[in-house]
Structures are given as C-alpha cells and as structure tokens.
Amino acid sequence: MSKSDLTLLRLSVVFVWLATAAASVLEFNGQSTALLMAAGIEDPQFVSFLIIAGAGADLVIGIAMARWPSRRVFSIALGLMLVMTVVASVLDPSLWLHPLGPLTKNLPIAAALWILIRRST
Fold first, then answer.
1. Which of 4, 18, 34, 102 has a CA-to-CA distance to 89 between 20 and 30 Å?
2. Structural domain harbouring 98
C-alpha cells in the first residue's frame, strides 16, 4: 500500500470521526437523545452527558488522527470504537440489523484502523 493510499485511508477514517461528532451534536435533541431514551436511559442530564462525552471523544480522536497520526492514536481510536460498539450493542442490539449499518460499518473501520496501526510508527 502506497503512502498516498495510507493517507487516503487515514483521512477517510478521520472524516468518519469528525462527522460522527458533528452529527451527535446537530441531532442532540433529535436522534441522539431518542437513541439513548429508546435504550432505557431516561435521565435528561445523563443523556446530555453521554451525548456530549461521546461527541467530545469522537472530536478529540478525529483531530488526533488528523494532526498526530501514529500507532498509539490509531490504537486508541480502535479501542474507543470497540468500546462504543459493545455499549451500543448492549443498549440496542437491533442496531446490528439496521439497513444503514450504524454498527456493521464498524467492521471495515476496524480493518482500516488495523492497517493504519500496522503501517504506522
């Protein structure tokens, strides 16, 4: 895989993280809240905390991968993605069957991060 291929792969993963952070905030009172409430989390303050924390984590990881790409940053991103996938799976297992793939998309993202981890210093 060429250096330009790795850059394209990295930038595509960065985009996913930054877009997810933006979507979480833009849909704060819409889909973000509805998703957590449907999973049985009804305390408005806790819902707000989870949305802000998740969006903040996505933003930080996206910026870190864009500015300081390294094996460590990609490993942290992979770990965070795995934790968020497990949490989402516990809260709403039906997300695995969603036609737009909010959780199934994590499998190719994990593969992309694994490639970046193996090719980074």
1. 18
2. 3-119
